[in-house]
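As a warm-up, study this chain.
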Amino acid sequence: MKMKSLMLGLLMSVSAVATVQAADLQIVLGDTGTGLQFLQGQVERYMAANPEDKVTIVPMPSSTSDQFGQYKLWLAAGNTDIDVYTTDVIWAPQLADHLTDLTEATKDIIGGYFPAIVESQTANGKLVALPSFTDAPALYYRKDLLEKYGKSVPKTWDELAATAKEIQDGERAAGNKDMWGFVWQGNAYEGLTCDALEWVKSSGGGQIVEPDGTISINNEKAAAAIDRAKGWVGTISPEGVLAYGEEESRGVWQLGNAVFMRNWPYAYGLGNGADSAVKDKFDVTTLPVGAEGDAPAATLGGWNLAVSKYSPDQDAAIRLVKFLSSPEEQKLRAIEQTNLPTLVATYDDPDVAAKAPIIPLWKDVFLNAVPRPSGPTGLKYNEVSSLFWSAVHDTLSGNGTGAENLELLEAKLTELKGDAW
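Now compare it with the structure written out below.
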């Protein structure tokens, strides 16, 4: 009888261990382009290598603002359903209290990542997200149309506007009534903060809030940069650009109905897809500047992988995060998605250079990357960004001038800051 009880106890223990080891994980992703499809392939590869785990993808809206709002609600409620979050580069300081410290779990691999990107995902000395891919936008241009009209790649925003208008008018006269000169992200969301920061910074107007915490946005150069962009709406950009995100811009561009586009690296591979009207007809360069002597600016982006502190399957969730950001997966992502790797060695991989030549070329763009002021503003960054993009959107929509709206913005930011960020 005792032996029978002992055997039963052992079987129950083995069953309990098996139950603990088997993990049912959920990862959330906001999709742009074919990101969801690529992640599905990653998940299938992970489950083949880790058959004890099941991974389900929870799709999110493509709007980063909507994603962040949902993340905050879930994490504030201590949601145990979501194990892994895909996080924007600016979110680490704001969500850090709800995320698992990955420092110890990644100590064997973290040395291969770009130190600056690792630093951006470190809050209070804790690594709260593992970098998956980095990002910086570029100016996409139709090299065939520039050649047709005898135009060079524009160096300043005014040159871009003039070239865009001439080619747009010429192509419309030739029969393409849907042609526009320039498409970008003008909707009132985080994407507009990125676009407008580039206009302002590349015109000598600062970074909204400087690294030392100084509110700098209310200045003549910043106001002029935003007013300049307002002049594009309805002339070289459709009125509807005020509701465009990344995908709406790409849609117009990929149909062959834009001369220039501001967008992230993911649009490069899609633009050269078999079903694209602009396949082999375009190239990329750094974004323009306000005037000669100004430096170009490209908003630093990128996505990372964070483990929820409330996940009941911590070990498995960390294992998934490390797999998704591994050298093999970053190489595939670079080749298939044209996303910029966060691992230094991947840039020197001959397969990447051969199959995705844009990756090495994007280094020039990446060297001009400018961070959003999430560092100095910390937990208040989301409010800072919302106030900024609202002021910009008001100006673009004709509700006040750049100077008027930036003066109001400065007052609101000063109140929000209080004694300190």
